[in-house]
Amino acid sequence: MAGGDSFDADPGRLAALRAEMEGIAKRLPALRSDFLRGQYFYEDYTGSGSEEISGNLKPRWKETTGYVDSVLEALAGAITAVVGAQTQTLNEIERPNQKAQDDIDSLLSAQGDDLDTDGGRR
Fold it and tell me: What is the C-alpha to C-alpha distance for residues 117 and 107, in angstroms, rounded to an integer?
């Protein structure tokens, strides 16, 4: 927000953020897969000597790793949704800009070289 009543959208910054978030979204499935694969190394970390300790810790450990897996999956979905929204925002910014540029170009070509093209700067 620039002055409170307006929104200044910088297409370049939005596109850079979108590209960065796309990269994160692409890496999350591998991160999730690595996490799930890695958890198997520690599945029996509670040991088998004390059934009471093992019986209490193992279910909590499985529940926690399940939560982490769910969060990673939800995070990937959320980032994908944000990237989609950013793409839509960029299109909404760039479409009118492109139309305005096309209109200017057609006006310039219709007027030839007689049109003042210095933007009013003298």
Answer: 11
Strands annotated E in the chain: none
> SS3 for 6?
coil
State pTM to two decimals: 0.59
Instruction: Please tell me what DSSP assigns to residue 75.
Output: H
Angstrom distance (rounded) from CA 27 to CA 49: 39
C-alpha span between 21 and 24 (Å, rounded): 5
Closest to 60 measured CA to CA, from 46, 73, 41: 46
Give the pLDDT of residue 1. Answer: 43
Please count the helices (runs of H) and the strands (runs of E) in the chain.
2, 0
Give how far Cα 63 sits from Cα of 34, 52, 67, 77, 96, Å: 18, 17, 6, 21, 50
pLDDT in tens, 33-68: 898 888 877 776 666 656 777 677 777 888 888 899
Straight-line distance from the first to the last Cα atom of the chain, in angstroms, rounded to the nearest whole number: 32
